[in-house]
Input
Amino acid sequence: MSDQVLVAVISALGSALVAWITAHENRKKTEDKDDLEELKKENARLKRKLERRDKK
Output
């Protein structure tokens, strides 16, 4: 019976680890998307600035 308990504990720990890794990776993807959006906005702002400079 102790072997069954050990297997159950290891299984539970493994499931918790997989859930934590999944949550961590999903959070990183969200942060990366936020960074990408910021870069797109900055890129658009700089393009407008260059266009104004070219018109002068």
In short: The chain has a mean pLDDT of 89. Helices lie at 2-55.
